[in-house]
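Annex B. Sample input.
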Amino acid sequence: MNGTRNTPVELLYAEQQEREEQALAAIDRIAHELIEETSYISHWGGDVPYDSVIETLTERIAEILGVTTPPANKRLRKRESFTARKSLAVFKRDDYKCVFCGTPDDLTVDHVYPWSKGGSDGMENLQTLCASCNSKKRDKVPNKRLGSVAS
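Annex B, continued. Sample output.
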């Protein structure tokens, strides 16, 4: 024996620390999988990519656990189902072109009135934007003229 013996408290602490490290590694794996699986919706609302994905995930976890934890100063809202079929319907309605610049390339579905500012997922609030215009618009509120947004 080397004369250094761990006390039961030290052993319990080491075991707990190992479990926490395993849980954090699992969270890291899950986060990477989530990012990979949801990259096509990373633009959903918010100032930072994935803001609304994270909010939706938080709400879903709360539902599964049966707890209510609405975000501070926000009412808890549920997103409508946002399917590929719905995206295609928006693209078709907008003639497969960006409603701001008219390009048919790199199209995305955007909220006219941003989700992060209370806009809905209804068809009347969705529009086709190219990735470039969507990136410039971010979560700005539209002015009356098509293509113009307030800062």
